[in-house]
Design goal:
By secondary structure, this protein is α/β, with parallel strands linked by helices. It contains 16 helices and 15 strands. Helix content is 37%, strand content 21%.
């Protein structure tokens, strides 16, 4: 079976730091690539390492005098290879002594210097505060955007909760003009404090566990710890804290909010169903839109995968147990489509997906009875069936708390907060491989106004 690319619910000033316990991660500033067998033979190199193709003059590599065409073999005794940077963060931070082992001109040499920290975010309208949240035997990096307004105190807050992937929530480098950053800056311009926190092990975070390895309730507890910390700042109005959940963040938001006194929730790009059912939609609805395959073919494929998906999600069979129970070809195709790499499926361990499937999203929204605005972009390829989902969530909330459920369907808007035409036009953008670039230039600023108008309405009613 051909390889498919899935789009799940992923889904990217003055700087000062309150925290002293969590140092800045080192910025190597090196663009590198694997060494081909031909190149290794040409330079007479054997072993593990990456070939340096570009050196950023502001990075640690330049400070060490790393040069183009060097082979970086290790940093502070951490071998360079898959996942090395996560290991490196555990042993070196900005300002620490850094030792690099490189291969140059047929010799292995050692370079020494001081680690340069990763650049911090900057915003024209915000003071950027880097702090941390104690959690899981370590700390999660938190980032606060405080409006640059004279004597601004007692501010309403938007706590942005990111989506599915184990990526840093900082908007740096290629994401320095992302649609997310544009939206957050828009919130600041409206007078909101904007708050974010990294997932376990991401960005500067230093925790015993890593985002990739945990199940969903551990991740939710990290966000809850951050929400409790947020309430301690003297410039925050603790009666006006709103969660803005993006994608999976909207599914986690009602669990984060429980008993912690949030004023409301805004959720964008999510589905009101369990992940077992959502995987069905990925196969039968999304793939025919973005791949060269028909709806009929994928419906037939789903019929083959129904029982393995059920066993995986509800009976919590491991990959090994699925491989024992079902024909090899069936499971091999299933695992390939859902990007199994020997450890993770869709970038998360199986236990994360299985625990996510256990969440009763609709029931939780009814339980907390918090005013909630559910948003769906009409051309969203990830939140399949999200139009029906936002209506369902709104109806469920209003069933137990009349007047607290709201929804809005936003025309021509995709999962990446950008204007993208209809569903077929958005699919064409995905196929072009330019989805991120498109989102930076086509951010839908209506999201800022919709959010602000709704929050203003909620606060007026109080």
């Amino acid at each position: 079976m051909k390889k498919y690319i899935l789009f799940v619910l992923l889904l990217a000033t003055t700087n000062w730091s309150i925290a002293q316990d969590l140092g800045r991660r080192v910025f190597l500033g090196l663009s590198m690539q694997p060494i081909s067998s031909e190149m290794a033979q040409k330079i007479n190199f054997s072993g593990n390492g990456l070939l340096v193709k570009k050196v950023n003059p502001s990075g640690t590599g330049a400070q060490l005098n790393v040069q183009v065409d060097d082979v970086l073999m290790a940093v502070n005794d951490v071998p360079v290879g898959p996942g090395y940077y996560q290991q490196l963060k555990k042993v070196v931070r900005a300002g620490d002594q850094v030792t690099a082992k490189i291969f140059r001109n047929g010799e292995v040499i050692k370079l020494e210097g001081i680690g340069v920290g990763t650049p911090k975010e900057t915003y024209t309208q915000a003071e950027v505060i880097y702090d941390d949240v104690a959690f899981d035997g370590g700390h999660l990096r938190s980032i606060i955007l405080k409006p640059k307004m004279p004597h601004q105190r007692n501010c309403p807050v938007i706590f942005y909760v990111q989506g599915f992937s184990c990526n840093s929530v900082e908007q740096l480098g290629p994401f320095s003009n992302s649609s997310v950053k544009q939206m957050l800056e828009g919130f600041v311009e409206k007078g909101y404090v904007v708050y974010r926190v990294e997932k376990l092990g991401m960005g500067d975070s230093s925790t015993e566990q890593h985002c990739v390895d945990v199940e969903v309730n551990t991740e939710i507890e990290g966000f809850r710890a951050a929400l409790k910390k947020l309430r301690q700042y003297d410039f925050v109005n603790t009666d006006q804290i709103f969660l803005w959940g993006h994608s999976l963040g909207a599914m986690q938001a009602p669990f984060i909010a429980e008993d912690l006194g949030v004023a409301g929730i805004i959720g964008f790009g999510f589905v009101a169903k369990c992940w077992h059912d959502y995987l069905y939609d990925i196969v039968t609805v999304q793939l025919p839109l973005i791949e060269e395959v028909t709806y009929g073919e994928m419906q037939e494929q789903l019929n083959v995968w129904r029982m393995p998906i059920y066993d995986f999600m509800f009976n919590k069979l491991s990959v090994e147990q699925l491989q024992e129970k079902y024909p090899q070809e069936v499971i091999d195709d299933f695992l390939q489509v859902f990007s199994y790499n020997g450890k993770t499926i869709l970038g998360r361990v199986p236990a994360f997906l299985q625990s996510l499937n256990d969440l009763n999203l609709v029931g939780q929204y009814q339980k907390i009875k918090v005013p909630t605005l559910s948003l769906y972009g009409r051309s969203d390829l990830a939140a399949i069936g999200g139009d029906e989902g936002v209506i369902h969530i709104s109806d469920a909330i209003n069933q137990v708390a009349p007047g607290n459920g709201y929804y809005q369907i936003i025309p021509e808007t995709n999962h990446f907060l950008a204007k993208a035409g209809n569903m077929q036009e958005n699919a064409a953008i995905h196929k072009s491989g330019q989805i991120w670039q498109h989102s930076t230039t086509h951010f839908n600023r209506d999201l800022i106004e919709i959010t602000h108008d709704w929050i203003t309405n909620i606060l007026t009613k109080k």
